[in-house]
Write a structure and sequence with these properties.
binds zinc ion; 8% strand; single chain; mainly alpha; Helix-turn-helix domain-containing protein; 110 residues
Length: 110
């Protein structure tokens, strides 16, 4: 390979690397945009244990224990299943309201 040819190849590789960097950046932007489309926890009505933990700034373990012990009003599809919490019930719990007031905040009859 001649020096001229080597310089040519190097220039092409450099251009390709630049294109790849641009494409990667564009892809990262798309992924970021997709992720930010998901509603923040603060805007969601029904929360999983992990989301309830985020909203309440309590550990997931504290949230689970409170739910199991009836201190935090939540819903399970089946006994031992995943908990789902109404955001307003979480807030009532944080305010120290009892189970009755948490149920009222939840808006259910259960
Ligand atoms: Zn409820």
């Amino acid at each position: 390979m001649t020096t001229t040819r080597l310089v040519e190849v190097a220039a092409r590789l450099s251009a390709a690397a630049e294109e790849l960097a641009l494409a990667t950046a564009a892809l990262i932007n798309i992924v970021d945009a997709t992720q930010t489309e998901e509603k923040p926890v603060a805007d969601q009505l029904w929360l999983s244990s992990a989301q309830a933990s985020k909203r309440s700034h309590r550990t997931a373990s504290t949230v689970s224990h409170a739910a199991v012990n009836g201190l935090l009003h939540g819903h399970q599809a089946v006994p031992g299943g995943r908990w789902v919490f109404h955001a307003d019930a979480i807030d009532a719990w944080l305010r120290g309201h009892d189970a009755t007031r948490q149920r009222e905040a939840c808006g259910c009859d259960g």
